């Protein structure tokens, strides 16, 4: 007899990765339309947990309507071998196990959870959180035998969700703070995670002390605990191997494991760069760093940002451009905690290359931003278009402006060298193919000598591409 015979819908790995569109949904729990949502696991003493207990605070599934609800899942576990270190690991498994339920879609983690229940499964009888609780309890105890007792509370009452949300955020911060200070160079191994491969088949998340999982839910300590508890599970040890590139963060062992776990699709990974061989992105990342060519810098947008970024795209559009386990130059799925790391975009210039961040995120990481950059990074309150962003960066003296000036000087020098070559060859020599790209928000004057005279080109905010340019002196009549 199946362990889920009393559940009105099917339960199995086959449903992992199922997407439920809004038109097919019965209701939505959490998600981008509501502020307060969370899932939290706490380890308790054996006498503090009533095994099998399921509590519902607020309306049950059958009492909900087709709209978005504040929502919380609070799980308490006990076992003689359980330690607090394992809380985050158990928490991340909620994503996997809820997705085993037919007609239930679970995305993201921690304070970003997004759950939809389909009309079809509701009509089949999935009308109570009790059923979801039973599935979670049985899967947790079956796959993680160190859990001896488990009780689950589902919260839909808005005030109770808000109250517990505050506690959850404090717990997340304590966990994250514990990992800060440990450096990648100080450990002999990293950890990998393939929990998201049902959504992104070629994605392999590499977790180091200074680079959290993209979802923000698994630290290096969590990875170590998970690999010890479940050695054959989706979180595993990664031998570092030879350190091939300290600046970009390339390791021989990481390349080997990523190649194997991605089925050969991903050959190399640079952990600290958004270019070349950037770390792949799943779909559960907390934020995306995206390159803005007009300012030669990065913007960052998080999942909760509902407006358009200065490049005219929303989070969802940018996320779709980089998710799925792909390596896309200039797009980088990241966690908020990674933004607090000294390795953050290390190979690309770090924080000095960041030009735009939503105010909510900037406030959360402000203590980890270099002091000389405070007030120089734009938010949605300062710039809503690329042009406004350029003006803000110039006005505030962002370091990126010096980068523009250096680039402009370099391009001017190249153009002058080309002109000098043409002058030496012949007064009417053709200038070879060239691309002149002036720096953002800056004028570029390029003197070109021809024979005994000269011309001056003033390029204003323009890109000129020409296969061939001929400069010929017109003889006076």
Please give a structural write-up.
With 477 residues, the protein is of the alpha+beta class. The chain has three domains: 13-174, Bifunctional carbon monoxide dehydrogenase/acetyl-coa synthase(codh/acs), Chain M, domain 3, CATH 3.30.1650; 184-398, Carbon monoxide dehydrogenase alpha subunit. Chain D, domain 4 (Ribonuclease HI, Chain A, 3-Layer(aba) Sandwich), CATH 3.40.970; 407-470, no CATH class. 27% of the residues lie in helices and 22% in strands. The chain has ten helices and 23 strands. It has helices at residues 87-98, 119-124, 129-143, 158-179, 220-229, 252-261, 315-322, 359-365, 386-396, 400-425, and strands at residues 25-30, 37-43, 54-57, 68-69, 71-78, 104-107, 114-118, 149-155, 189-193, 205-207, 235-239, 243-245, 250-251, 287-292, 297-302, 331-334, 354-356, 430-431, 434-436, 443-450, 453-460, 464-466, 469-470. The protein has a four-stranded mixed sheet. It has a four-stranded mixed sheet with strand order 2-5-8-3, sandwiched between helices. Strand 14 and strand 15 (297-302) form a beta hairpin. Helix 1 packs across helix 5. It is globular, with a radius of gyration of 27 Å.
């Amino acid at each position: 007899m199946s362990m889920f015979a009393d559940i009105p819908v099917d339960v199995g790995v086959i449903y992992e990765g199922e997407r439920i569109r809004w038109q097919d949904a019965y209701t939505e729990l959490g998600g981008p339309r509501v502020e307060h949502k969370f899932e939290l696991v706490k380890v308790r003493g054996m006498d503090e947990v009533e095994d099998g207990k399921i509590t519902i605070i607020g309306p049950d599934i059958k009492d909900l309507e087709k709209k978005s609800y504040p929502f919380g899942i609070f799980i308490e576990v006990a076992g003689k071998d359980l330690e607090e270190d394992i809380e985050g690991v158990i928490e991340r498994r909620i994503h996997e196990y809820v997705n085993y339920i037919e007609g239930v879609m679970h995305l993201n983690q921690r304070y970003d959870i997004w759950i939809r229940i389909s009309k079809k499964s509701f009509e089949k009888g999935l009308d109570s959180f009790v059923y979801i609780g039973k599935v979670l309890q049985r899967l947790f105890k079956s796959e993680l035998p160190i859990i001896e007792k488990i009780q689950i509370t589902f919260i839909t009452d808005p005030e109770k969700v808000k109250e517990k949300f505050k506690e959850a955020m404090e717990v997340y911060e304590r966990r994250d703070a514990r990992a800060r200070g440990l450096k990648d160079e100080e450990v002999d191994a990293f950890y990998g995670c393939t929990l998201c491969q049902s959504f992104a088949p070629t994605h392999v998340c590499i977790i180091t002390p200074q680079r959290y999982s993209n979802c923000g839910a698994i630290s290096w300590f969590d990875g170590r605990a998970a690999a010890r508890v479940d050695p054959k599970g989706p979180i595993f040890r990664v031998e570092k191997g030879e350190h091939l590139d300290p600046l970009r963060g390339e390791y021989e062992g990481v390349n080997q494991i990523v190649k194997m776990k991605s089925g050969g699709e991903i050959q190399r990974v640079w952990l600290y760069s958004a270019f070349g061989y950037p770390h792949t992105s799943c779909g559960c990342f907390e934020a995306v760093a995206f390159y803005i060519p007009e300012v030669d810098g990065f913007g960052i947008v998080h999942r909760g940002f509902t407006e358009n970024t200065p490049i005219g795209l929303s989070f969802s559009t940018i996320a779709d451009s980089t998710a799925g386990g792909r390596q896309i130059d200039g797009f980088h799925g990241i966690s908020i905690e990674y933004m607090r790391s000294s390795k953050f975009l290390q190979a690309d210039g770090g924080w000095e290359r960041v030009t735009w961040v939503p105010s909510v995120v900037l406030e959360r990481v402000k203590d980890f931003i270099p002091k000389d950059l405070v007030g120089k990074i734009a938010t949605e309150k300062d710039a809503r278009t690329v042009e406004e962003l350029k003006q803000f960066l110039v006005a505030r003296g962002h370091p990126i402006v010096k980068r523009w000036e250096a680039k402009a000087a370099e391009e001017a020098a190249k153009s002058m060298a080309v002109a000098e070559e043409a002058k030496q060859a012949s007064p009417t020599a053709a200038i070879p193919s060239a691309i002149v790209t002036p720096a953002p928000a800056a004028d570029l004057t390029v003197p070109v000598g021809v024979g005994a005279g000269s011309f001056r080109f003033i390029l204003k905010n323009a890109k000129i591409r020409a296969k061939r340019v001929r400069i010929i002196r017109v003889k006076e009549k």
